[in-house]
Amino acid sequence: MKPDTYAPFRYPAYRRFLFGGLLVQLGTAAQSLAIGWEVYERTGEPFALGLVGLTQAIPMLVLTLPAGYLADIHDRRVLVLLSMIGATTTSLALAAVSAFRGPTWMVFAILFLDSSFIRLGSPARTAIAPLLVPREVFESSIKWRTTLGHLSGVVGPAIGGLLVAVHLSSAYLASAACSLVFMAMVLGTPVRDEQRAVRGALLRKVAEGVRYVWSRKIVLGSISLDLFAVLLGGAVYLLPVFAEQMANDPAGAPMGMTAEQILGVLRAAPALGASVMALVLAYSPAFRRTGRMLLANVAGFGVATIVFGFSRSFWLSGLALFLTGAFDNVSMVIRHGVVQLATPNEMRGRVSAVSSIFIGSSNELGGFESGLVAQLFSPVVSVVSGGVGTIVVVLIWAGIFPGLRTLGPLSEIGPEGDEASG
C-alpha cells in the first residue's frame, strides 16, 4: 500500500509543535553563530570559543536528568512554556549586552542561563511528540521532523550570518521573536497528557528512568549503539587537518581551493547527506525490518568513515562524509522512534533525558578520543580505527541484543515488550 506521506500534517497539534519548534531551531542557530562571532571578536582567542561550548555543555550534563523527572510529574506544556520564557529573556539580555558593549563575562553568564532554560524544556518537548499523532503515523512524523530539522540547521546559520552582517544584536532579537511565536503556538495547542508519574524523591525517580533503560533491551541497545557510533566515528573533529593536507597536495583538491574553502565544503557534506536522506525517508514506506535497518546503517556509517580516513581525494572524501550524514540520519530516526514508543508516557521524560545524556556527552568524548588517537598515532589511524570500531560494535550488538536484530515495524513497538519480529 502506498504510504500516506503527509498524514502527520493532518493533525493541528503536530503542525503547531513542528513549525513552532523549527522557528526556535532557526533562531537558536542564528543566535549561536552570533555568539561565536561576538566572543571571538571581543577576545581574539580560539580558546574562548571552546569556553562557549563548555558553558553550554555544563547545564546539559547537570540538568538533563532532573528536567526529565520534572517532565514526568508536571504538565509538559507548562515546562515548555517556562523554558521558552527563560530563553526569550536571555536572548533579549544578550541583545542588550551586545548593543551596550557589556563585559564579556556577562555574555558567558547569560549563555549559561540560556542553556539551562533550554535544557529545562527539552525532555518535555521530546516526551510530548508521541502524543501529537496516532501511533501508526508516528514514524512518519519523526521523518518529517528530522527532515525539516536538518534543513533548518543549514538555513539557520545562513540567516544568522546575514543578521550579523546587518547588526549583531538583531540575531539575538530574531531568536527572541522565534521563541515568542512558538510560545503562542504551544498555548493554542491542547495535548492529551493525563498519565503522569507519581511524585517522589528526585534521585529515586531519576534512577527509575535509568533502570527502565537498562531493563528494556531494545531501548538500551538502540541508545548504546548510537552512542558508540558517535563516540568512535569522530572524523568531523579532524576535518581541519585533512583540509590542510588536501590544500597542500596538488592532486588532493580542485586547483585554487584554499584550506578554509575545503574545510567549509567538507564540513557541510554530512549535513547535506542527512538532509537528502531525510527527504528520501519522508517519502518512503515505513520500515518493516527496523532492527536490521538500524544495524545496517550504523555499519554503513563505519564503512564510510573508513573510506574518508584513507581518501586523499577531495571528491571521494566529500562523498564519504555525505554518506556518514545519510546513514546517521536513518539511525537517528529509528533510535527516536524506539525510545519514544517503547517507553510508557509517564516515564518518557526521564528516558528521553537518559538518551540525551548518552548521545550528547558522546559527541564531546568522541572529539576528545579522535584528537587523542590522532596525537598519539596519526589522523588516518584515528579515523580508520574509529570506523573499524563502529563495525565491530555493530557485530557485537547484533549478538547481545537479539531483540534489536529482529525488531519489526516501529508502529508495533509498545512499552510492554510486545514489539514484533521482522
3D structure, described in words:
It is a single chain. This protein is mainly alpha-helical and 422 residues long. It folds into two domains: 7-196, Growth Hormone, Chain: A, CATH 1.20.1250.20; 210-412, Up-down Bundle (Growth Hormone, Chain: A), CATH 1.20.1250. Helix content is 77%, strand content 0%. The protein contains 15 helices and no strands. It is globular. The model is unreliable at 418-422 (pLDDT under 50).
Which outline best applies? globular
The biggest sheet, with number of strands, parallel, antiparallel or mixed sense and barrel status, is:
none
At CATH level 3, the topology of the largest domain is Growth Hormone, Chain: A
The CATH class name of the largest domain reads Mainly Alpha
Tally of individual helices: 15
CA radius of gyration is 21 Å
Approximately how much beta-strand content do the residues carry? under 5%
CATH superfamily of the largest domain: MFS general substrate transporter like domains
Euclidean distance between termini CA atoms: 18 Å
Secondary-structure arrangement, i.e. CATH architecture of the largest domain:
Up-down Bundle
